[in-house]
Amino acid sequence: MFAQRIANLPPYLFARIDEMKAKKRAEGVDVIDLGVGDPDLATPPHIVDALIDAAKNPDNHHYPSYLGMAAYRQAVAGWYNKRFGVDVDPDSQVISLIGSKDGVAHIPEALVGPGDYVLVPSPGYPVYSTGALFAEAKTYEMPLLKENGFLPDLDAIPNNIAKKSKLMWINYPNNPTSAIAPPSFYQEVVEFAREHGIVVVSDNAYSEISFDGYKAPSFLETDGAEEVGIEMHSLSKTYNMTGWRIGMAVGNKEVIRGLGIVKTNIDSGVFNPVQYAAIAALEGPQDCVAEACKIYQERRDVLVSGLKKLGFDVTTPKATFYVWMSVPDSISFAARMLDETGIVVTPGVGFGKSGEGYVRFAITRSVDRIKEAVERMGEVKW
Ligand SMILES: Cc1ncc(COP(=O)(O)O)c(C=O)c1O
Question: What are the extents of the domains in the chain?
């Protein structure tokens, strides 16, 4: 019944984990879910209020603009300037997204087709690959290895693949490894993209979730970045707005125009009140972001020190709300975690072949629950 492209897809990892989790809960297990990266914290009230006010105005009940309201695109440009010192033209270099997943899934439609390659990090956010497969392109997995700081080794990409590649994904701070990228890496990426005529998309969804004084850069701060690519960003993680579905793509005019053409033919934009709420988020007080980072940092410290005490091999992340831990076999470890402790973690191999040997914890639960998770793990002989 289904088209071949559906038959070719691997099962969506998180949907599968949801099924297993539901089964355990139905059996009466008190599941501690450290699986999906969905903040447990509430959207700050001034953002919710902006939505409510805008929703009361019937002018906002119509089809929104395909590309985002002018005021939203200006707010995004203003935020990029204030946060990263990057200047972009709101009319031609910014587009709204229905969450960054929308942009990730759809941009391959604008840039690649049969015979083309998309360079995807492995492990990586699964939609980089599925978006490419929907566009009937091939993917080449760039391994992110611990010995390289979980950065792809661009010199290791075979020349014949680089020649056929039209799109490359980079994602720092990284999901799932929580690695960060030094500015020198972004410079290398620009040079590589120029040499091979590849469009770079930097997925910067986690730039605002960082610890110990670290501030993540934007790829667009790099000399030449706007010439070769764009950045996707989202309000989901920064302002605890995963359910609201709003994000942005920013950067190279032609690439933004191509994405706009695809989206104009697929969706009808973001509900205006959600865009007004996003403006309130981007232009309003930012102490809510600092507060969230403080909460995640405390959780990180509790989890990492607990895991180390139990003898696990884990590094302390500088950013993201993920902890990436080395294990002998990711699927069997995650299965044992659920069966023997009632804790959900994500097996690394679900993010690509090179994710094998790791599991990912999402620190999107309270300190008390994380402490309890560590206690439960301490009762098992690993
Ligand atoms: C690396 C990465 N990119 C993009 C997304 C999509 O987020 P959203 O569509 O909510 O902006 C996620 C969500 O988990 C992610 O981890």
Answer: 4-43+287-379, 57-284
Distance 304 CA to ligand 1 centre (A): 23
Taking the C-alpha atoms of residue 330 and residue 356, their distance in angstroms, rounded to an integer, is 6
Query: Shortest CA distance to 132 belongs to which of 186, 169, 95?
Result: 169
By most ligand atoms within 8 Å of CB, the mutation choice from 237, 322, 346 for ligand 1 is 237
Question: Could you give the CA distance from residue 315 to residue 179 in angstroms, rounded to a whole number?
Answer: 10
Residues 325, 308 contacting (CB under 8 angstroms): no
* CATH code of domain 57-284: 3.40.640.10
CATH architecture of 4-43+287-379: Alpha-Beta Complex (3.90)
Of 184, 188, 234, nearest in space to 207 by CA:
234
For the Cβ of 37 lying below 6 angstroms from any atom of ligand 1, the answer is: yes
- List, for residues 230-274, the tens digit of each pLDDT value: 999 999 999 999 999 999 999 999 999 999 999 999 999 999 999
Across the range 132-156, mean pLDDT stands at: 97
Tokens representing 346?
């994500």
CA end-to-end span of the chain: 44
Query: Which helix (H) or strand (E) is 83 found in, with range?
Result: helix 70-84
Q: List the residue whose alpha carbon is closest to atom 14 of ligand 1.
A: 37
Mean pLDDT of the chain: 96
Please give the torsion angle defined by the CA atoms of residues 205, 231, 144 and 137, in that order, rounded to the nearest 10 degrees.
Answer: 110
Whole-number pLDDT of residue 221? 98
Tokens of 184: 């020198």
Asked if residue 139 has its Cβ within 6 Å of ligand 1, the reply is no
As a whole number of angstroms, the distance between CA 63 and CA 314 comes to 48
Ligand 1 close to Cβ of residue 204 (< 6 A): no
Task: Calculate the dihedral angle through the C-alpha atoms of 217, 221, 222, 228, rounding to the nearest 10 degrees.
Answer: 110
CA 172 to chain centre: 9
Residue 127 tokens, joined:
């939609």
Distance from residue 199's CA to the centre of ligand 1 (Å):
20
Q: Tens of pLDDT along 98-116?
A: 999 999 999 999 999 999 9
